[in-house]
Design a protein that fits this description.
- The protein is an alpha/beta fold and 398 residues long.
- The protein contains 15 helices and ten strands.
- The strands form two sheets. Strands 1, 2, 3, 4, 8, 9 and 10 form a seven-stranded mixed sheet that branches.
- The chain has a single domain, classed as TIM Barrel, CATH 3.20.20.70.
- The radius of gyration is 20 Å and the shape is globular.
- Bound molecules: iron/sulfur cluster.
- The site of iron/sulfur cluster has 10 residues, from loops.
- Its cofactor is [4Fe-4S] cluster.
- It catalyses: dehypoxanthine futalosine + S-adenosyl-L-methionine = cyclic dehypoxanthinylfutalosinate + 5'-deoxyadenosine + L-methionine + H(+).
- Pfam families: CofH_C, Radical_SAM.
- Its EC number is 1.21.98.1.
Length: 398
């Protein structure tokens, strides 16, 4: 049984960028003192970003939810409606383009196209929409979808996932957001998403995407009753693929939200579990560049703390979000507040691109952007044409 001296030796190795085993990671995750774990992760972050270690990044993006119709019925999900239900809605292309126009107007650089597994939406649907978005707004990066959507659209269209990826990439998809990873180990995944593809299949499709030159981020949903060992196994599965492809740009753990879903909030991850995960991800995933703190699901203070536990990025000012909001995530921010939060956490904020280049480094608070329309929102999906900001209702797609 390792003691704290043994653990410190493992932490020191990992802080230097050395590789640790899944067994070592599990022991650290369970038993290392929290501050020692965070200090090692912060040291690893500083070493990786030597020269820019004082910076923490954010992005301005918009989630665009194109439909809530979904045949997959995940138990943790508060967003979907069964395809035959009266609660189903879809957004037409004009509405989607108007949301893109607002994103550009507000200085957003990325859209995340996000929706349910609609029974009729095959590859052609995504080709048409991505091509239309790119034609009107070539400056917007389409960082969207994941292996689950690829599996579903390929099945609808009767093609292989590889062909589906080639076609939607050619139509305009820039990178995959890594949606649908949830929990990759079989027991934990089946317990919350019995109709989703297996974790192995999810990874196979992401690996295919990476091989085709379409990079992605990776995610983990924490707090639905999975064990610590399953959390570390999830990281191992991602690290093994990353060893082969190098295609995961970032790892983003986020916490299960308890409202309006079949799991009924019987379990939830605590703040300390979340911070421990941020740290162990930085240490174990030595081959993944970016670790993102999720203030949207854990809260702003947790986001600030995550910057001291290994995270280098705080995600986005999300101009619109409807998925985790439906399950109870109520945290909202705006760009000015996010800059203040990052500075209060002793970092210099920088707006980044999808590929993590620094677009603007906000060195001087006196020069901060002051557009108070750059606010994270959920637009009620019940309101036809709901938009990021009331003043922007009249912006038309050009
Ligand atoms: S998480 Fe995605 S796939 Fe699962 S039910 Fe919700 S919308 Fe459908």
């Amino acid at each position: 049984m390792p003691d704290n001296a043994d653990r410190q030796a493992v932490l020191d190795r990992a802080a230097e960028g050395g590789r640790i085993t899944p067994e070592e990671a599990l022991d650290l995750y369970r038993s290392a003192p929290l501050h020692a774990l965070g200090a090692a992760a912060d040291a690893a972050r500083r070493k990786r970003y030597a020269g820019t270690e004082h910076i923490a990044t954010y992005i301005i993006e918009r989630n665009i939810n194109y439909t809530n119709s979904c045949v997959t019925a995940c138990k943790f999900c508060a967003f979907y409606a069964s395809p035959k239900s009266d609660d189903v809605w879809t957004r037409d292309l004009d509405d989607i383009l108007r949301r893109c126009a607002e994103t550009v107007e507000l200085g957003g650089t990325q859209i995340m196209f996000q929706g349910g597994h609609h029974p009729d939406y095959g590859v052609e649907y995504y080709e048409e929409h991505f091509a239309a978005i790119k034609e009107r707004f070539p400056e917007l990066v389409i960082h969207s979808l994941g292996a689950s959507e690829v599996q579903h659209m390929a099945k609808i269209s009767g093609v292989t996932p590889e062909e589906a990826i080639r076609r939607i990439h050619a139509a305009g998809l820039d990178s995959f957001a890594g949606a649908g990873a949830e929990l990759l180990p079989a027991r934990a995944r089946t317990a919350i998403a019995p109709l989703k593809e297996s974790g192995e299949r999810w990874l196979e499709i992401m690996e295919t995407a990476h091989d085709l030159g379409v990079e992605s981020t990776s995610t983990m949903l924490m707090g639905t009753g999975e064990t610590n060992a399953e959390r570390i196994e999830h990281l191992r599965m991602i690290r093994d693929v990353q060893d082969r492809t190098g295609g995961f740009r970032a790892f983003i753990p986020y916490t299960y939200q308890p409202e309006n879903n079949h799991l009924k909030g019987r379990t939830q991850a605590t703040l300390f579990e979340y911070l421990r995960m941020i740290s162990i991800a930085r240490l174990f995933l030595h081959n993944v560049a970016h670790i993102q703190g999720s203030w949207l699901t854990t809260g702003k203070e947790a986001g600030q703390l995550s910057l001291h536990y290994g995270a280098d990025d705080l995600g986005s000012v999300m101009l619109e979000e409807n998925v985790v909001s439906s399950a109870g995530a109520k945290h909202r921010s705006n760009r000015m507040e996010l800059l203040d939060l990052i500075r209060a956490a002793d970092r210099v904020p920088a707006q980044r691109s999808t590929t993590y280049e620094h677009l603007v480094v906000h060195e001087d608070p006196a020069e901060d952007p002051s557009d108070d329309r750059v606010v994270s929102h959920f637009s009620s999906t019940a309101i036809e044409g709901g938009s990021a900001h009331p003043e922007l209702n009249l912006i038309e797609a050009k």
